[in-house]
Write a structure and sequence with these properties.
three-stranded antiparallel β-sheet; paralog of FGE (formylglycine-generating enzyme)
Length: 456
């Protein structure tokens, strides 16, 4: 009996000694693998910093939209070029194929749907789409042809009796959480908790599903933008070829409105995270979004404090007399800079952070809503003014900031501090976008190689 008691005491003593914390507060991840965030494909790192936002030498429009202020911005990764036609086409094709697989799931559920987990037997409701099965667009199976028939244009709308996908049916539906509505606090008894956009609940009184929003977006670009933006100009060939022809694969996508650009960010986030979840790498889950106005300007400056242009100098030409961006020089001599309209991305030299076309080629959407006085009331740390405009809101509430100028703009609009806006539901042939990914940190001393997507 004494030996048994002694044995128990020894076990308890050794057990207490085996505690790696020795009674100290050491956290839960002492033995976990250190987190590492590599440079995302096709993105460059923009370090945190402080600068005078809106510093400019001129205001030719006398609009007084810029009131310089010193701000600080966190680190992030940014696409080294604007999103190209080929990259945006991957999004469009994914939406097309997901709709087709959903339709084919009605006639061939075993091939196009995953209804339960093969390992655990868990039943999925609704079932997952099976992306491993190829779609037979020209199948001889009548059931398959009938299932896909709704995706094509009706016969009276077809050119030369050729079957074409009805791009009006390429709708992308997604959910997002309105954190700004959730952050508002109204503790009054009159607070309407059914509408989180107007008043908000105290913590714990209602479930958070009231902040979940649903968006359904038509993802196909407005290819007619080349005509309706310039009515008395012969841009018809671009309407027919610009988005889908391989000659324009690496040109910036245009005809995409702000809501479509945001939907692309949501899709890109889920596209990568679904792959990471399959690898059980939950720590590395990523997020892509549009840059804020402040982030865009900080990235465009390339580390220079008061430069008017991304390349740092006060001129639009280099020492050899060559233009440094694609814009409208010399009172309308569009081809003087090497491009009549848009040109291939990364055609001109990057700024000092490796970002191409931060001036000219196409202007770029930001996540920020436009307000003439937003510089005055926003915070000086990661400033941003946002407003989630609804369909019935007046047009003035639907304005979003665009930056960088485009192929049709004069040099003033290419300056890093120049502000402009467009309406969130309007697509233009001179506006594109690029995305960013927040920087989460990596091990000290790590310096991963950057995977570039520059094609020329």
């Amino acid at each position: 009996m004494k030996k048994l008691v002694l044995y128990i005491v020894v076990v308890l003593f050794l057990g207490s000694c085996s505690n790696s914390g020795n009674g100290e507060l050491v956290g839960t991840r002492k033995k976990s693998k250190p987190f590492y965030q590599p440079d995302p494909y096709g993105m460059v790192f923009v370090p945190q910093g402080s600068y005078v936002m809106g510093a400019s030498a001129e205001d030719i429009s006398h609009s007084h939209l810029i009131q310089p202020k010193t701000i600080s911005v966190s680190s992030f990764f940014m696409d080294e070029t604007e999103i190209t036609n080929d990259e945006y086409r991957q999004f469009v094709y994914w939406v097309r194929d997901s709709i087709a697989r959903t339709m084919l799931g009605d006639v061939r559920p075993d091939e196009f749907l995953i209804e339960e987990n093969p390992k655990t037997g868990e039943v999925y409701d609704p079932p997952y789409l099976n992306w491993k099965t190829d779609i037979e667009w020209n199948s001889e199976d009548q059931d398959v042809r009938d299932a896909l028939e709704d995706m094509y244009l009706p016969e009276h709308e077809r050119y030369f009796r050729r079957k074409e996908i009805d791009t009006r049916k390429l709708m992308y539906s997604y959910y997002w959480v309105d954190l700004h509505a959730a952050a508002k606090k109204d503790f009054s008894e009159e607070a309407d908790y059914r509408n989180a956009g107007l008043a908000n609940r105290p913590q714990g009184l209602r479930d958070r599903s009231v902040y979940v929003r649903n968006e359904t977006i038509a993802v196909y670009p407005d290819t007619l933008a080349w005509i309706h933006d310039y009515t008395y100009s012969y841009n018809d060939p671009l309407t027919k070829t610009y988005f889908w022809h391989p000659a324009y694969d690496h040109y910036p996508v245009v005809g995409v409105n702000w809501r479509q650009a945001r939907a692309f960010c949501v899709w890109r986030t889920e596209y990568l995270n679904s792959y990471l979840r399959a690898k059980k790498d939950m720590v590395s889950l990523a997020e892509f979004r549009l840059p804020t106005e402040a982030e865009w300007e900080w990235a465009a400056r390339g580390g220079y404090a008061l430069n008017p242009y991304p390349w740092g100098g006060p001129y639009t030409r280099n020492e050899k007399g060559c233009f440094l961006a694609n814009f409208k020089p010399i009172r309308g001599n569009y081809i003087a800079d090497g491009g009549l309209r848009t040109v291939i991305v990364a055609h001109y030299p990057p700024n000092d952070w490796g970002l191409y076309d931060m001036a000219g080629n196409v202007a770029e959407w930001t996540s920020s809503a436009f307000d003439p006085s937003s510089y005055n009331f926003t915070w000086d740390m990661n400033p941003n003014y946002t407003y989630n405009a609804k369909e019935d809101d007046p047009p003035v509430m639907k304005r979003k900031v665009v930056r960088g100028g485009s192929w049709k703009d004069i040099a003033f609009f290419m300056e890093v501090s120049t502000r402009a806006y467009e309406y969130q539901d309007t697509a233009k042939c001179y506006i594109g976008f690029r995305t960013i990914q927040p920087y989460l940190g990596r091990n000290k001393g790590d310096n991963p190689s950057k995977a570039s997507r520059v094609y020329n």
